[in-house]
Structure to design on (507 residues):
């Protein structure tokens, strides 16, 4: 494998602590980087200490999903362990449900992958204010929308129909979460134009490169996705 | 009419009949206990769909046939919301509810147009729909029946989610089409979540944006087929309910909520056919 080949190390950490508001700019930087090579860093094999290798083929895609579920589960566990100030009983209940769903997803992938599963990832939530509803729901929205777009983009990369069905079982629940969180932030935004193409009614899916570029802000462990199918 | 005898007769000429319709067998037995209305009025319909199910419905494998199935479901949703927005718009004027229903209406019509554009000359025509399912439900477009409209909306969205999921494996030979179908699938799930929130606000106070077990909530029993099979606690041999991790015990409810199950072509079509005139 050559250097600069499909690497998503996402080392854009300089402004990590400036928070969620910069998501859009980061996203742009990642897209720009992906097309110009500006932020692609060199690395290639497992031996380079360049992070956790997701692997190849269907295993790689499942590990990719497992990584995202780890991120979501860790986030909601912390949300529920220290609910934001003034939370309603209703949102307490809904967020606890979502935590349990994400933990179930994570544990499913861990068990299904068995010896091929990647290690537990170290997360970085320093940009999130868990005491603040706006910060928590804003992050939840970002994670849920990201998850939906990731599963949709990865589905066609799977070879196994059984795995495709399993991914499908999960992605629609992520979409239910996403719609709820969005409506709690702004009622009626469940299919707004930032996530759905309003001329076709289709969700906007993302490639693993795009997804990991965004998720990388919240994951300390370096992830090597260079062996994923494309 | 003696249903049990009819079935016996069919079995003598077609020994495999029972096997093909066995999930429905219990339903037939139970029909004798149903109310007058269903026994007298809906029985021919029920038998009709039963026979079509046994003999006429097989999972299509050609991409266009799968897409035409999806198009049929989208026709149903698009017409349902188009008529619903027209019927309930005045009473709901200025509310978030009509805004959301209009948004969903637009998405469903966009899905119809998208699938028609992909299928071009191969697209099936829109069937005529009967949203009372031949009198099973009150007219959802009567302004007095807004709650019925929302209940059917929930059933259609949850059916759509499950039906697309069931068809995805049959689109794997064309990655572009598969990705488009997945991108519709998740939008249906977003709709389902929102409609469920609307129904919660409208009085079904325990309803969640996700499906718990095979519970249909406070929607009519005739819609139970939409939720059957959603109660799985084990995924690909991994038993998730009862698992204890990070100090969290995963309940059966949470585990069933965490995974939406696919509907087979036959089961999804049987639901849709109830509403085809």
């Amino acid at each position: 494998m050559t250097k600069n080949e499909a690497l998503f190390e996402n080392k854009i950490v300089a402004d990590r602590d400036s928070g969620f508001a910069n998501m859009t700019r980061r996203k742009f930087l990642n897209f720009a980087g992906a097309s110009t090579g500006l932020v692609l860093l060199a690395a290639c094999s497992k031996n380079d200490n360049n992070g956790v290798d997701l692997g190849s083929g269907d295993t790689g895609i499942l590990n990719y999903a497992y990584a995202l579920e780890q991120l979501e589960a860790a986030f909601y566990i912390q949300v529920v362990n220290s609910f934001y100030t003034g939370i309603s009983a209703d949102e307490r209940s809904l967020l606890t449900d979502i935590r349990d769903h994400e933990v179930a997803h994570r544990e499913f992938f861990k068990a299904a992958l068995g010896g091929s599963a990647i290690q537990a990832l170290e997360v970085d939530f320093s940009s999130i204010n868990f005491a603040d509803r706006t910060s928590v729901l804003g992050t939840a929205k970002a994670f849920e929308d990201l998850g939906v777009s990731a599963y949709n983009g990865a589905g066609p990369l799977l070879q196994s129909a059984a795995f495709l069905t399993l991914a499908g079982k999960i992605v629609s629940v992520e979409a239910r979460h996403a719609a709820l969180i969005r409506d709690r932030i702004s009622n009626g935004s469940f299919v707004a134009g930032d996530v759905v193409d309003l001329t076709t009614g289709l969700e906007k899916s993302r490639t693993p490169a795009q997804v990991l570029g965004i998720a990388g802000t919240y994951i300390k462990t370096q992830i090597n996705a260079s062996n994923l199918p494309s | 009419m003696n249903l049990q005898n009819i079935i016996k007769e069919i079995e003598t000429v077609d020994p495999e009949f029972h096997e093909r319709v066995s999930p429905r067998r219990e339903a037939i037995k139970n029909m004798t206990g149903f109310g007058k209305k269903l026994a007298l009025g809906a029985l021919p319909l029920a038998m009709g769909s039963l026979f079509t199910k046994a003999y006429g419905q097989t999972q299509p494998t050609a991409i266009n046939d799968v897409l035409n199935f999806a198009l049929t479901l989208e026709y149903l949703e698009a017409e349902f919301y188009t008529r619903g927005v027209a019927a309930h718009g005045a009473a709901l004027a200025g509310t978030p509810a009509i805004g959301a229903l209009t948004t969903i209406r637009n998405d469903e019509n966009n899905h119809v147009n998208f699938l028609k554009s992909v299928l071009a000359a191969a697209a099936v025509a829109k069937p005529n729909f009967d949203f009372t399912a031949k009198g099973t439900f009150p007219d959802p477009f009567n302004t007095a029946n807004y709650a019925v409209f929302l209940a059917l909306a929930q059933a259609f969205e949850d059916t759509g989610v499950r039906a697309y999921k069931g068809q995805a494996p049959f689109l794997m030979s064309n990655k572009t089409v598969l990705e488009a179908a997945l991108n519709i699938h998740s939008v249906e799930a977003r709709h389902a979540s929102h409609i469920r929130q609307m129904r919660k606000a409208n009085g079904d106070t325990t309803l969640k944006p996700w499906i718990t077990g095979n519970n249909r909530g406070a929607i009519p029993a005739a819609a139970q087929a939409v939720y059957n099979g959603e109660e799985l606690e084990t995924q690909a041999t991994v038993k998730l309910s009862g698992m204890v991790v990070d100090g969290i015990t995963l309940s059966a409810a949470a585990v069933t909520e965490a995974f939406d199950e696919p509907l087979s072509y036959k089961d999804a079509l049987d639901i849709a056919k109830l509403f085809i005139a």
In short: Residues 1-48 of chain A have pLDDT under 50 and may be disordered. Chain A is about 50% helix and 5% strand.
